[in-house]
Amino acid sequence: MSDDAEQLRADARENRNRILEVAREAFTRRPEASLNSIAKAAGVGAGTLYRHFPSREALLAGVYRKEIEELAALAPALVLQHPPMKALGLWFERFTEASGIKHGVGETLHAAVSEQDMRDTFGILKEAVGRLLFACEQAGKIGPGIPPEDVLVLLSSVLRIAPTAEGRQQARRIQDLIVRGITAGEATVQR
Questions:
Q1: Which of 47, 73, 133, 181 has a CA-to-CA distance to 189 between 20 and 30 Å?
Q2: Residues 112 and 136 in one domain
Q3: Shared domain check, 120 and 64
Q4: Residue 138, pLDDT score
Q5: What pLDDT, in 10s, does the model give residues 118-167?
Q6: Tell me, what CATH number does 156's domain have?
Q7: What confidence tens digit (pLDDT) does each residue in 31-89 have?
Q8: Residue 4 buriedness (CB in 10 A; 0-12 / 13-18 / 19+)
């Protein structure tokens, strides 16, 4: 492949990533943001945006996938940089921050993302949480065998909370409850 072709490919990737970053911010602030305003803010023409994302739904799905990929990649980096429980807490916070886009565009996003995409992204997040839990278990901070899918289901409750000051406080309380629950031991509901 020629150097010119490589440069064009790199430029296209850079444009795509910039569009996704701007779209994430725009949809989080104003769910009704127009695609043309996003293209302008990203410094690209509308044609470039539509070449990468032919519809609003395609752009939302792209933002969602990028967010999930970044969350998954964050887990091993946090484990290397912080004690395990701190890494888990930081990941929970980032998960909550990432949920901001879901408010206002939730129905559109749900329609844009296929069931297979949902299963795939849940699997990616499950693996990331599993890595964090394993590090906590190895450090003796939590008991063995906590299912990462259960932690994700609990954590997903923050997706329903509005991204307001009160909502952020509630999300932190939920994160604390999850951490207290997984560090508490073998308590179970009596039946």
A1: 133
A2: yes
A3: yes
A4: 95
A5: 888 889 999 999 999 999 999 999 989 999 999 999 998 888 888 788 98
A6: 1.10.357.10
A7: 888 999 999 999 999 999 999 999 988 998 898 888 889 999 999 999 999 999 999 99
A8: exposed
Tokens of 52: 């990468």
Q: Which amino acid is at 86?
A: K
